[in-house]
Specification:
Elements lengths: L5 E3 L17 E2 L2 E2 L8 E3 L6 E3 H6 L15 H8 L6 E3 L3 E3 L11 H12 L5 E8 L2 E8 L10 H17 L3 E7 L7 H20 L4 E9 L1 H4 L8 E4 L10 H8 L10 H6 L5 E2 L5 H11 L3
Parallel strand pairs: 9-10, 10-11, 11-12, 12-13
Antiparallel strand pairs: 1-7, 2-3, 4-5, 6-8, 8-9
């Protein structure tokens, strides 16, 4: 097994918004192909045509049905922290291909494509920041990079963030959105479950506070490790949370499953999450619990 499955490379920023042209072609029953790109988008929940700027001003939540659009890590950080207060850390960490893994194409080629698409080195951003004046260590997963699968870089950056929160005696806030462990890194990916969980145990022994925020979707090894170990577990409305997908579970147990059994509302009822908080209220909720915990 290689000693170091990560390497260092230049960091990148966040990409822009790309709205498919077909969403703009017919508005008010007319051919509006002259409408500039990126002004309108269709809500996948209520199918209403939404003005993009209005959705952005509503924290990327549909103003009609309150559907929470998926957002990248830079946008999430922008919404959570106080202006100009975030200091990004360890942006130079990038994954290697120690196993020389090949599925439909070599992992190293897939990484290059994903890095170009997401304009990021890997699937997590970590750093120091302030949420309503409360100093925190923040780690945010980015679904745009291989569905935020957890590989060696995600595990390393999160472990460093946990250790920094322990050393600085700051609350740790982790925003999860993931498809699970990264299969292209095999056992190296699975090892991150134990690695991050052990770091969280040390944080707990030191009396630290860990707030885990679950967004849509949070699955696999992420759910089976650090995402469900928070002192407080907050979920966004209607977020899908589980270990395996509903179809996989149904095919395995050969039983009819309760409707919405992997949605945050069902999990709140069963005690797996502590709160369901709309995105617009997340800053206030986190700051309130930091004060309540005396941090």
């Amino acid at each position: 097994m290689p000693e170091n499955p990560v390497t260092e490379a230049p960091a990148h920023g966040a990409p822009g918004v790309d709205i498919p042209r077909s969403w703009h072609d017919v508005i008010d029953g007319q051919d509006r192909s002259d409408v500039p790109q990126g002004l309108w988008s269709r809500c996948p929940s209520c199918e209403a045509m939404c003005f993009v700027r209005q959705v952005e001003q509503n924290d990327d939540v549909c103003p009609m049905c309150q559907h929470h659009f998926p957002i990248g890590a830079p946008r999430r950080i922008e919404q959570l922290v106080d202006p100009d207060s975030f200091e990004s850390l360890w942006d130079d960490l990038a994954p290697l291909d120690p196993l020389q893994f090949v599925d439909r194409k070599p992992y190293k080629d897939r990484l290059k494509a994903e890095q170009k698409k997401a304009d990021a080195r890997d699937a997590m951003i970590c750093g120091r920041g302030f949420i309503k004046g409360r100093g925190v260590i923040l780690a945010v997963m980015d679904h745009r990079f291989m569905m935020a699968s957890m590989g060696s870089v995600v595990g390393e950056k999160l472990t460093r963030a946990i250790e920094l929160a322990t050393d600085d005696d700051r609350p740790l806030v982790v925003v999860s959105a993931s498809g699970g462990a990264r299969m292209q890194e095999s056992a190296l990916s699975l090892a991150q479950m134990a690695k991050t969980s052990a770091a969280l145990a040390r944080l707990d022994d030191a009396g630290g506070l860990f707030i885990s925020v679950l967004t849509d979707p949070t699955y696999g090894g992420v759910t089976a490790s650090f995402a469900m170990l928070g002192d407080l577990i907050i979920a966004e409305p209607k977020a899908r949370i589980g270990f395996a997908g509903a179809r996989v579970i149904a095919n395995t147990v050969r039983q009819e499953l309760p409707e919405g059994f992997q949605r945050s509302e069902f999990l709140l009822e069963k005690g797996f999450v502590d709160r369901i908080t709309p995105r617009q209220e997340l800053r206030t909720e986190i700051s309130r619990f930091i004060d309540y915990a005396g941090k």
